[in-house]
Amino acid sequence: MALSKGRYMRIFAILLGIILILLFEQRSIVPKRYTMTVYRIGSDVFISYRYLKNTDMHLVIGKCGVNKLISIKAIYLNSNYTDNVMPWGTKRATNFMTSCTDWIGPYTVKSLECDDGGEPSFTGGWHGDSVDGKEIPTANTENFSIRIGNEELSDKKVYYCDGVQISVTNYIQAYNTKKIKRNVLKEEVKYDITPNEVKVEVTSTALEKVLLQRYYGLQAQNGEFESIEYGNGVLAQCREYSDSGTYKKDNIASCFKLFSKKGVSSMVVSLDTGFGLGNFENLSDDLPTIFTQNYGKTYFNLVNGIDKIIEKGDSIKWRGSYEFN
What's the pLDDT tens digit per position in 228-285? Predict the structure, then answer.
């Protein structure tokens, strides 16, 4: 029996309504497009984002060196031909760089209130104290926080986001308090990580009166990168000594760029020269603002040649960034 026109229209309206409801529900459960994934395993944080076309970068932040301080631990690259960033977990990722040194500089710092006779040397970062052939820590981490907004990340759970914040509190010994293991600096490091960029800010507060004699602060392991260009245009190779030239008011290099072979990839390291030690007021005018050692590491020269007294409770600070291109 043929359906009447009115009944046909009612059935069509019902079917159309069902289809619209299904489409709405499907759209509501599909997450918005995200730019990063974050996966925490204990003290290691795997942060993934699109690096180059069809390539994801997995940045690993975790405990490093004899002091087990939180820092850039490794960088992996992984082919990805989908539209979305793939979370860490693939066995096909290739190692682009594994850290063998610190990225946040150690200190040559002397206590002016207590002296165990230690000679000038670096403490903190990856620098320990050699005792009877063993490396003993000169720093330790008190707090370590990983957040997306106000949410603290749980272990072994993948998060989809557009940025992540990591906060670390470390305690640093002086070179003349290593034997008695006395901390003289409280170091607070904040990482603000978005796709292809790591912003870092460091504030170090004196627990007693100290003399800061050398401090590079922002630095980078050059890894697989081949050449370097300083912010003032000076070009050099990564595996030979070079620098940005003698520090002058009209010759302040505030960044450098590392290039891989054939320029396929690069990393830009920048210092905010209008913030804290970034003004180079503690740098002798016969030294460069940036220099590279032949073992493949580049440093900013924040305190070198002009010592800085830090009274108890006072702080030093700086901020900068690493940008991957």
Answer: 999 999 999 999 999 999 988 777 899 999 998 877 789 999 999 999 999 999 999 9
Cα-Cα end-to-end distance for the chain: 69
- Confidence check: pLDDT of 27 > 50: no
Query: pTM for the complete prediction?
Result: 0.87
Burial class (CB in 10 A: 0-12, 13-18, 19+), 194: middle
CA distances, 149 to each of 21, 145, 161, 323 (Å):
33, 12, 10, 22
